[in-house]
Amino acid sequence: MPRAPAAPKRMHVVVAITGASGIAYGVRLLEALGGLGVEKSVILTADGETVLGLETGLKAADIKKRSDHFFRNDRMQAPVASGSSRWDAMVICPCTMSTVSKIANGVSDNLTCRAAHVALKERRRLVIVPRETPVSTPHLRNLAALSEMGVVVLPAMPAFYGRPQKIGDLVDFIVGRILDILGLENDLYRRWAQ
Fold this sequence. Notes:
The chain is an alpha/beta fold. 39% of the residues lie in helices and 16% in strands.
């Protein structure tokens, strides 16, 4: 007797939230992915947790509620640290320049960097959302190195052609662009049209 076709696999995205300013981007990304039915493994760094509280008043427990799987950055035995773990893409949002440097230079001393290196070695989509200004020459060199490795560098630089009315509109523009890169349909922002 023939087998019934398998149900389509739900997309699984690893989201790392580091200690850069712009935590609202990461929080909104988790909400948007959840609304699209995407499975989310979330890594929260210690500095990310600090900035989360400073910028939003949220706590790690609030991020955990928005996650299917939640990991602290020092949990190196987490499934996402292995190439045999089945996940589709990774987004680091926001991404500190320290994290950019570690990934660009092959340092895997925490779960975020190890999972990023898994994405690179397994040829999975890796998107980083750096949030720093201005950038130094070493920052630029590290970003260029990541781009040359196939990483999508998506700086938190919202557009204004959609005439944003509130901060949430600017955040949604960046999150919508991340979803675009992941191949996920969304209407979070007004697209360019002449």
